[in-house]
């Protein structure tokens, strides 16, 4: 594999949250920035670890503030003009903007406790495992991030509404590597302010 795209989905409307949750501070840092920082760090480590692998970060968003910060960090930015169409619209845009990649890793921006090392471990598992997909799980529940080889780009581009990559993964479960995480907090996605307190 020569090219891996790290795609951060950051275009949601945060209806249930009551405000733009991606800008909500978690331990003093905007939620989206916690994910972006981890992707940037992972990219730097991968470049040293695997110099033959081209790694590129893409942020799909509708928000100017997020776009500006992403560009400062060296990421490519793709705007989603139709976020009301659901997460599938951001996935399609991310895939379209990285058609030349051999694989795409998708992260969501409302999982503030995902660890950088988990992202790296998932990528390493995908690169060494030989399967077409990889994702994380906790106690049998599949979660994000997920990685898809280019042979699944067509199916990802056909998703609609709130159907995400896990819909494709479930159809081809035998072709997926699974990384089990020890702390379920990593996979918590924040939909409402009261979920900011981990119990």
From TrEMBL:
Domain MobA-like NTP transferase: 7-172
A GO term for molecular function: nucleotidyltransferase activity
Coiled-coil ranges per UniProt: none
Any Pfam family matching the protein: NTP_transf_3
Transmembrane parts of this sequence: none
Protein name: Nucleotidyltransferase family protein
